[in-house]
């Protein structure tokens, strides 16, 4: 895990050397990210409005059906989605930098410990794939979440092996990926 | 024969001792005070295997005895598949006697759970990953420790601040303290949650994840329990430390709790019906620590 922390720090330093973005530039990158996330949410909202509303139910069949149908429809609408559609290279660099900052801020040991604690999973997922049903979800360390741009409740940052993914939890769908954030 | 006569008192004493050991201890059953809040606690239970059913059977026996009417679930409610058949085998069937008796289950999410379990009505999550509910003079806060983002922390801060309950009890999957060999504590989660717990008077924290039972010595007046062996078990998975107040890692179990005024009574009961830990937590600031 010390190696992981070191890699994150080096990655962050490299980002900084290759052009440490000014505050305004950071702000513009985050705004662009938020805009892309909002566009995804709008698409998702339009799709979900065509499905029967999922309410609290004793029928697991209904819950599974909604999850599958939502995932299928989003997948169809985003069939040409590619890595970087939401995590653009600039955003990915910013997220690597913010991840390194979380470690530098004195939470590195905590984050490393938290990652070890939470049954790390080794997965290589692709965009539009479902998260495998029988594989536990690795919890995302709170100190890392505190440093990353806020997300709406519909999507989450998740760690899968070395990658950071955007997961649509209700559709159980991988929305975008940054490869090799963790090593 | 003469030898037997001379030693008969010793034989009788030995038989009595053996009987006392073999019969599950009922003398320490909760006080069952009038108008108290009584509930059970289970964690890491959703295997669908025989041991889960046996723990559930003990729970039903204790429900008949104590009349508890709700259960808090510490996550890993359903391992593996999430099909209707899985939910039946891993939840509806083992707890059928409790469900039929009107017992309500309040789930929190573990790392093996599909977040969409929040829509499963028998889990009473109100479609939310984290939520709170009130029972008598106690308020319960079910958290999602898989994803403790700033939004959830803010919600928790506000909900605890606004609560006027005498007892504030938080429960979630990943333990802040644990001497389990496999996972250990989540110190990052601890760094974020414990200051909030202290600030707003949380007295009891329940977690699972580690497949054993451990009662931690109180930290800053907060009593931490780890209970992750209501279905799963990591036999001999504990390495006790100076932080360990009590533990059980050789079989499955569940907990009973009873809140009566300023006292919270707890009792940990094994798959075979043996009480493996019990005690009382007092709410007052200067009260004595838990008495085993």
Distance between the termini of chain A: 9 Å
Largest sheet of chain A: 3 strands, antiparallel
- How is the CATH topology of chain B named? Purple Acid Phosphatase, chain A, domain 2
Name the average pLDDT of chain A: 86
Shape of chain A: globular
Strand content of chain A: 5-15%
Estimated share of beta-strand residues of chain B = 25-35%
Number of DSSP strand runs of chain B: 13
End-to-end separation of chain B in angstroms reads 44 Å
Number of domains of chain B: 1
Estimated radius of gyration of chain B: 20 Å
Query: H/E order of the elements of chain B?
Result: HEHEHHEEEHEHEEEEEEE
Oligomer: heterodimer
What structural class results from the helix and strand content of chain A? mainly alpha
The largest beta-sheet of chain B arranges its strands as 4-5-6-7-9-8-10
* Helix fraction of chain A by DSSP (H/I, runs of at least 4): 40-55%
Q: How much helix is in the residues of chain B? A: 25-40%
Characterise this structure.
- The complex is a heterodimer of chains A (183) and B (292).
- By secondary structure, chain A is mostly helical.
- Chain A has five helices and three strands; from the N terminus they run H-H-H-H-H-E-E-E.
- In chain A, 52% of the residues lie in helices and 10% in strands.
- Chain A has a three-stranded antiparallel β-sheet with strand order 1-2-3, with no helix packed on it.
- In chain A, strand 2 and strand 3 (173-178) form a beta hairpin.
- Chain A is globular and about 45 Å long.
- Chain B has six helices and 13 strands.
- Mean pLDDT of chain B is 91; it is low at 15-27 and 286-292.
- The A-B interface holds A 54-61, 63-64, 66-67, 107, 109-111, 113-114, 116-119, 133-134, 136-143, 145-146, 150-151, 153, 156, 169-170, 172 and B 80-84, 86-87, 111-112, 114-116, 119-122, 125-127, 129, 145-151, 153, 174, 183-189, 191-192.
């Amino acid at each position: 895990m010390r190696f992981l922390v070191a890699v994150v720090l080096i990655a962050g330093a490299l980002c900084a050397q290759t052009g440490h973005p000014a505050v305004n530039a950071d702000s513009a990158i985050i705004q662009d990210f938020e805009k892309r996330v909002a566009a995804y949410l709008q698409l998702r909202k339009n799709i979900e409005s065509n499905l029967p509303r999922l309410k609290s139910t004793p029928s697991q069949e209904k819950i599974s059906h909604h999850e599958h149908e939502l995932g299928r429809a989003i997948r169809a609408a985003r069939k040409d989605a590619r890595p970087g559609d939401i995590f653009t290279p600039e955003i990915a660099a910013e997220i690597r930098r913010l991840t390194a900052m979380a470690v530098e801020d004195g939470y590195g040991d905590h984050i490393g410990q938290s990652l070890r604690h939470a049954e790390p999973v080794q997965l290589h997922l692709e965009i539009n794939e479902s998260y495998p049903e029988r594989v536990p979800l690795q919890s995302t360390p709170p100190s890392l979440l505190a440093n990353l741009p806020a997300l709406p409740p519909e999507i989450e940052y998740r760690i899968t092996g070395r990658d950071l993914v955007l997961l649509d939890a209700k559709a159980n769908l991988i929305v975008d990926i940054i490869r090799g954030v963790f090593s | 024969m003469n030898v037997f006569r001379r030693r008969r008192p010793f034989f009788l004493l030995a038989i009595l001792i053996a009987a006392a050991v073999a019969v599950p201890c009922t003398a320490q059953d909760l006080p069952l005070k009038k108008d108290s809040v009584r509930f059970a606690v289970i964690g890491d239970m959703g295997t669908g295997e025989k041991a889960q059913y046996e723990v559930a059977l003990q729970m039903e026996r204790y429900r008949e005895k104590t009349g508890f009417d709700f259960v808090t679930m510490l996550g890993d409610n359903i391992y593996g598949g999430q099909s209707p058949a899985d939910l039946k085998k891993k939840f509806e069937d083992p707890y059928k006697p409790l469900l039929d008796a009107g017992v309500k289950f309040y789930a929190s999410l573990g790392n093996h759970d599909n977040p969409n379990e929040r829509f499963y009505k028998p889990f009473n999550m109100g479609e939310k990953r984290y939520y709170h509910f009130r029972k008598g003079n106690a308020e319960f806060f079910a958290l999602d420790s898989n994803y403790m983002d700033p939004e959830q922390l803010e919600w928790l801060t506000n909900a605890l601040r606004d609560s006027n309950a005498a007892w504030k009890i938080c429960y979630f999957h990943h333990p802040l303290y644990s001497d389990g060999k496999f996972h250990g504590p989540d110190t990052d989660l601890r760094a974020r949650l414990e200051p909030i717990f202290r600030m707003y008077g949380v007295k009891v924290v329940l977690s699972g994840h580690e497949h054993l039972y451990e009662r931690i010595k109180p930290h800053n007046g907060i009593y931490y329990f780890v209970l992750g062996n209501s279905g799963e078990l990591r036999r001999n998975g504990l390495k006790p430390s100076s932080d360990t107040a009590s533990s059980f890692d050789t079989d499955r179990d569940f907990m009973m709790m009873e809140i009566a005024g300023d006292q919270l009574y707890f009792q940990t009961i094994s798959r075979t019906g043996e009480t493996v830990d019990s005690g009382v937590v007092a709410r007052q600031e200067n009260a004595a620590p838990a008495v085993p």
